[in-house]
Amino acid sequence: MVEEVRRYGKFILLKLDNGVLAIHLGMTGKLLAGGTPGPYTRAVLVLDGVTVLFDDVRQFGSMRWLAQAPEGLGPDPLAVSAAEFALRLHGRRTRLKALLLNQSFLRGLGNIYTDESLFRAGIHPLAIAARLSLPRAYKLHAAIREVLTEAVVSGGSSISDYVDADGRPGWFQFQHRVYQRTGEPCVGCGAPIRRILVAQRGTHYCPRCQRK
DNA sequence: CAGATCACCTGCTTGC
DNA sequence: TGCAAGCAGGTGATCT
């Protein structure tokens, strides 16, 4: 009996009568309602009589049965205030890109939306978080909200794997302004989009529009 | 303790 | 054509 379904950062939490099932899709995970198990089906759930497949090619996803819901991650970017966000940036002497990916700082942002948010805010991914001026911190906060809100409306970004529970892809990949557009012209100034590695993650940005 | 780096796993694309 | 290297929506362990 599933009593509640909710999201906590990148976790999907199913509250059951005897615990919580915490599902993380990793990079290539999918939860599919119905369908036939295939070579990448890692688990088959039967929830209140409905079959749900957990497919995951790369196996970075996870499914854990916990006594209690997980906690301790940073605030949700759509719930945190601009003032609180700026305050949290203040003491951190790391590159913004790495900080935004850190789930203890903010919960829910991943590689795509970090790059897209930094671009919209006009901030360089290597900028040191603590050195960001207050107006720029506010601008970044607004950009993150904007990107996430638009992405949710578009059903997310389907690069190669992602589909929703009914097998439908998202459309936000067509709105990406920098992510995986290396060498293509910036939509703002025409300069070629650059790709660097930050925290071992491919990081895409416009060298002209985004300043440290 | 914060921050940086490596490791985990499989498949697809790129370049010699 | 064949094969190796590089790349991919993430994060936990292990270093400095």
Commentary on this structure:
With 212 residues, the chain is of the alpha+beta class. It is 22% helix and 25% strand. It has helices spanning 82-90, 96-101, 111-121, 134-153; strands spanning 2-8, 11-16, 19-24, 29-33, 41-47, 50-56, 62-66, 194-198, 201-205. A four-stranded antiparallel β-sheet has the order 1-2-3-7, with no helix packed on it. The protein has a three-stranded antiparallel β-sheet with strand order 4-6-5, with no helix packed on it. Helix 1 crosses helix 4 (134-153). The longest helix has 20 residues, at 134-153. The chain is globular, with a radius of gyration of 18 Å. The mean pLDDT is 96. It binds a DNA duplex (16 and 16 nucleotides) through helix 3.
Topology overview:
Layout: E1 2-8, E2 11-16, E3 19-24, E4 29-33, E5 41-47, E6 50-56, E7 62-66, H1 82-90, H2 96-101, H3 111-121, H4 134-153, E8 194-198, E9 201-205
Antiparallel strand pairs: 1-2, 2-3, 3-7, 4-6, 5-6, 8-9
The chain binds a DNA duplex (16 and 16 nucleotides) through helix 3.
Distance between the termini: 51 Å
Helix- and strand-based class?
alpha+beta
> What is the strand content?
25-35%
In the sheet with the most strands, the strands line up as 1-2-3-7
Count of separate DSSP helical elements = 4
Q: Secondary-structure element sequence?
A: EEEEEEEHHHHEE
**How many beta-strand elements?**
9
**Uncertain spans:** none
User: Quick check: average pLDDT?
Assistant: 96
Residues in helices, as a percent range: 10-25%
Per the principal axes of the C-alpha atoms, what is the gross shape? globular
Characterize the biggest β-sheet: 4 strands, antiparallel
Radius of gyration: 18 Å
